[in-house]
Amino acid sequence: MARETVVLLHSSGSSPRQWSALASGLADRFPLRVAAPEIEGLPSLAADVARVCRDVPAGPVHLVGHSHGGAVAIKAALSGRLDVRSVTVYEPSLFAFLDVPEASPKVVGKAIASLFHAGRAEDAARLYVDYWTSPGEFQRMSPEKRARMTARMGSVVNCFTALIGDDARASDLARLSMPWLVMSGRRSPQPAQDLCEIVAGSLPFARLHHFAALGHMGPVTHAPEVNAVIEQFLREVLLSARPVAERRAA
């Protein structure tokens, strides 16, 4: 029997390093392989999924994704190209699930793209960081972090384009029968929280977990708290065919 692999998918403004602590913990405590592929921010989610499928070892997989990585995890599960045994997402940014054209992530994404294409990459990075965290957060970063974030704006713009223009719909999730953990932070922008309700409510077997004190970047800023919930869920999945379906507020 092929060994199972946990696939860790990072957010658009981050890198596989955001999952370093989780990857180490999983490797130490679970009989699992761990893969953390680079998501470059391609012009479509289908292209991101194809890249992930290419980089992941053959056999059963457990997908874990944050933000853009969560959207890639959803699309990978829908694609049928992987033997997916469970999916864990923290505020997946599949904005196509939001039917409202003026939803703030769509508006902000288009503004970020406009700034970037006008040669104002640092202003684009400022808008991106401050929207997903808090006003002024970009300026509080070190010059090195600001420079790294600014350098990622081309990839971020591609991610927004892919997320807004994707053709998946929440109703597609009804055919996914594997167990899911959907996580959200109560301090995140409301549309990100709404997306988690939509995703969890559209799945046959989903657990919805709220972090009262965390925001959208919870897996980065509060990794121990988020990782503990992920590990507990994976432990349940590995011990039983399917955890009891439930919706929990934490």
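That was protein one. Protein two is written in the same sequence-then-structure order:
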Amino acid sequence: MTVVGCKDLVKRFGNEVAVDHVNIDIKDGEFMVFVGPSGCGKTTTLRMIGGLETITSGDIFIDGQRVNDIAPRHRDIAMVFQNYALYPHYKIFDNIAYPLRLRKRPKEEINRRVHEVAAMLGVEGLLDRWPRQLSGGERQRVALGRAIVRNPRLYLMDEPLSNLDAKLRVQMRREIIRLQRRLGTTTIYVTHDQVEAMTMGDRIIVLRKGQIQQLGEPESLYHHPANMFVAQFIGSPAMNIYAGRLEGDGTGLALVADIGRFPLSSALAAQLKPDHGAARGDREVMWGIRPEDIGLDRAPAAPDCPRAVVDLVEGLGSDAYVSLRFSSTLLLARTSSDSRPAENETVTVHLNPNKIHLFDPRTEVSLLQAA
């Protein structure tokens, strides 16, 4: 059993606050992903958990034990880095065996464990080679092997796939997921790639300027973003967000935007937080819609349905991104390639009334509760 807790964790570099009162509870066996833009504090938080970075204030607990003053080598943690960190003067067998030799394990155990791990990762045929003779993907497998060979209680992975090409990243992503599920070891994984975060994490922590913006399961972050930052950071392509106005009373609510007026479904209206409902009357909002929640109709429509000119079409094989130009607004829609319109064509635009997102224009916090 390995659980990790961070309580009011703070890290300052001079006057700069890199990590700002972060609180996290990571469950036993969980694959937790830290995601956010460069400089958001994700790697610094990971390094503090690993003992590689001093803590300005706050506490870190592993299995209930406060580890602030415990040296990294005594935390029983294995780390996998972006640059692989293999020893160039050791052959692959010796790179994987290094943690066991450091702990003076018997020769027979070392030989058995190295071959077990090498077989698990598909690098048995590489044990007699030097790191310089390996491809990027092979080096990453060896780095993973060195981490798992001694069965640590916690894995920390700092952007381990960022140096790989796109195809290899997808392959290694799947291998890491399978490996973690097979081993069942608690894992903390840092990435700036939201697609990587969404596909790998049991839960995701979105960080911005050292602060947690939202913590939850991937689907929850995607469908119920806590604020505008999460809404636009999670999801590819990003959510369309513009200024608008919420109008209505007890009989119904509608979003009034530059591109038209859109009645909200009763289900969506019911999700409005109590202090932002119809009783408050009209109010300014920021509204958002994901590209896949925009419908396009090439046939003429009723006068009250908004029409837009197709500005650009980007084909992606099965899907297409369609840029829609209104008089003062540009929306990005995602549609099937089979039904995509042509550039400069005029189309009718429909917003899914159950999928509109609403945010406070001042705080940027979502005005909706999860259904």
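The chain has a mean pLDDT of 91. Keep this in mind for the problem set.
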